[in-house]
Amino acid sequence: MPGANHLFFHWESLGDLEIGRPNLGMMAPVLVYRLMLYTMRTVLTARFGLAETKRIFVAAGRLAGEEFCRHLLNTQLEFDKFLTELQEKLVEHKIGILRVEELDIDTWDMTLTVAEDLDCSGLPVTNETVCDYDEGFLGGILKAYTGNDFRVEEIDCWAKGDRVCRFKVNLIQAN
Asked: Taking the complete model, does pTM exceed 0.85, yes or no?
């Protein structure tokens, strides 16, 4: 649609931060990120309900994960080296500290944890998982790397009283 291209995300939509933020730089406080995230969640939930809001956040996270992988990670690496690079990039960009607890490379089933998670570490306990965006983000990264679709489900979360976010990852469709 002519004139509406700015409405669709492209990596270039992020702009040139070195030119645009010569004094403030690339990083913003987690407080500012969460202010945007949780007010958006509140508005979307009021308008569309909790289930649809979760779907929206997972879909947005998936798109972000695919783009993050395509632009910041080497998809030509063997999986163990890819995971190492992913861990380094997540720390470098202050997203979280990724650990692989379980991995069955034959089935692509895995359990991942993220400590100091950008979305939730330090939140009050509400007895619910809140890292819907992270579910999509991790699934998007894995899709961009493998070409396959994954189901990522958060099973432990700081908001449930845990000290890491734990995600079960399962291959749902191999291409």
From this structure: yes
